[in-house]
Amino acid sequence: MLKSGVYRIDLGNGWFYVGSACNLKRREAEHRSDMRRGVHGNRIVQRVFNKYGAFGFTVLGRYPVDEIIEREQALLNQYCHHPKFANIALVAGPSMAGRKMPPRTPEWCAAQSAAMTGRKASDETRAKMSASGLGRKKPPRTSEWRFAQSASKTGKKASDKTRAKMSAARMGHPVSDSTRAKMRASMAAYWARRRLAESAL
Length: 201
Fold this sequence. Notes:
Strand content: 5-15%
Radius of gyration: 18 Å
CATH class: Alpha Beta
Number of helices: 8
Strand order of the largest sheet: 2-1-3
Helix content: 40-55%
Shape: globular
CATH superfamily: GIY-YIG endonuclease
Oligomer: single chain
Structural class: mainly alpha
CATH architecture: 3-Layer(aba) Sandwich
Number of domains: 1
Number of strands: 3
Order of helices and strands: EEHHEHHHHHH
CATH topology: GIY-YIG endonuclease
């Protein structure tokens, strides 16, 4: 039996979350542990779990690792307008080892930033991350990348000096209409779900 596939987590009162994983059993344990400790990277999921305490993990399908991103994206497209859909990111991206890295779009960057919010790495983990990054070249910090990073820091205001630097860096790097549309749609959907979650809870 394949260990990889897509899943759904029912959180109570109609709220749910979908995702994919290379190891479904391990991913279920990670979600459950993070929620119980109050450190889940998805704020909507954590708020709903805190209120209702429900956790129903259902495997929707088992697929090869190279297919799970596509399967997850199909679920995101299907449920993105559901009023009690708890996912924040609307673009499927890799979160487990073994997956192929997609292009680092603004939506992907924002999703990864949001997923890591509240998580602290141990000293040993930090040392390994530092060692693994030695000699690697950082990707160019384009205007899309800066927008995603700025948008992911909800509630944090940049100083005037920082804003000026960001504005200057964007000069000469035009963003296509399609990219702008995707960025607006992703952020609009995120804030709509965030407002709904806060008003409902």
